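ESCALATION

Customer reports they have been waiting on this structure for their group meeting. Please prioritize. Original submission:
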Amino acid sequence: MFDFERLETIRKAIGIPLVLHGGSGTQPEYIRRAISLGMAKINVASELCRAHHEAYIENMKDGKAGWVPAMLADAHPRMAQVVEKWIRLAGAAGKAAQIAGTLHKNV
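Update from on-call: job pushed to the front of the queue and completed.
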């Protein structure tokens, strides 16, 4: 469970973007609220690893030899689905050009 009051207090006190470690499995409404309170980065490695692992297990069940490049190629679409889900959940879909423009102004 999130302590949103504490999160808001921390954000106001430090004035820099915050990072959520362990975002995998967090309820979407908590993510949206955390973002509204200054959370700028959400780590979801566990969810990405799970997608990779599921593709690996499927390959083994299908009798594939486990050649690493093939395994990675098969895992890529599943991992891309996870990334897309989180981009949409974070409200970042379609904002790459806007962010890139901001970055170029600051360089």
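Sent to customer with the following note: The mean pLDDT is 87.
Escalation resolved.
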